[in-house]
Design brief:
Elements (H helix, E strand, L loop, with lengths): L1 E5 L4 H12 L3 E5 L13 H5 L4 E4 L8 H22 L3 E7 L8 H14 L5 E6 L3 H10 L1 E2 L2 E4 L3 E2 L4 H9 L10 E5 L4 E2 H11 L5 E4 L22 E2 L4 H11 L1
Parallel strand pairs: 1-2, 1-3, 3-4, 4-5, 5-9, 7-11, 9-12
Antiparallel strand pairs: 6-7, 8-10
Helix pairs in contact: 1-6, 3-4
């Protein structure tokens, strides 16, 4: 089976591509470094030719919300008509828990991406993931102000990138549902608690300041948790186990 992975050189895309290739699939990696630009369409038709399943795990970055939304709008407007034309059987989108409810920043951009998939005329499934363990340190670092780290009191159930890649790889032979599936880790914590664990593990002496007005990927929270919906899939890897492995590999 030929499978295209849009964003195949990113954190999730690389892991997913490894799993699909190991399973014997013909995998086309759609990425600028491979000569394919999904936002402009350069090289896209050749990359997707013959694909039965398309995974979209692309992510242009988190710093500029307007640029993110523009990227997803451009990519979706090229991907979906082309997939419809060549007869792709299943479009699988990796999105984010909170994309349906949170305003601003990354979540608004992901909502735009989801809408284009829903309206694209191609059978689809959307997998919304809780925040990745791997990104927690980046979030912590972005909140740094001198000797303090200001973070909102967000409740979340973060998940390992490996577990998300495994969940995606198992969807290859599953029929398109036309619905959203959500995946979260096994433990519910607050972002400041996770930050404290990371700082301690890294012997980082900065103090945590809980600030309800601090942004999270450009969004502001009231009480909305990033924990998945009513019936999420739970991934097996705990944050503590992941952190121990991460520190050992550093």
């Amino acid at each position: 089976m030929k499978i295209a992975v849009v964003g195949g050189t990113g954190l999730i895309g690389e892991k997913l591509t490894e799993r699909l290739t190991a399973a014997g699939h013909d995998v086309a990696v759609v990425a600028r470094s491979r000569g394919v630009d999904v936002s402009t369409g350069i090289g896209l038709e050749d990359a997707l030719a013959g694909a039965t399943v398309v995974f979209d795990v692309s992510n242009p970055g988190y710093e500029d919300a307007a640029a993110m939304e523009a990227f997803f709008a451009a990519a979706g407007s090229r991907l979906m008509p082309l997939e419809r034309e060549i007869g792709v059987a299943h479009h699988i989108l990796l999105s984010a828990v909170g994309a349906d409810a949170l305003e601003g920043g990354y979540f608004r951009a992901k909502r735009t991406q989801e809408r284009l998939v829903r309206d694209g005329g191609v059978p689809f499934t959307i997998l919304r993931a809780a925040p990745f363990f791997e990104f927690i340190y980046n979030i912590v670092d972005a909140g740094g102000q001198g000797d303090a780290v200001r973070l909102p009191p967000v409740h979340m159930q973060p998940v390992a990138a490996d577990d998300v890649a495994n969940a995606l790889s198992r969807m290859v032979f599953a029929p398109a549902t036309g619905h959203v599936v959500e995946i979260a880790g096994p433990d519910r914590r607050t972002l400041p608690d996770l930050a404290a664990m990371i700082l301690t593990a890294n012997e980082d002496s900065r103090r945590i300041v809980v600030d309800p007005d601090a942004p999270y990927f450009g969004a502001h929270f009231e009480s909305e948790p990033l924990t998945g919906g009513d019936h999420p899939r739970f991934a097996p890897t705990s944050f503590e186990d992941w952190l121990r492995h991460w520190i050992a590999m550093a």
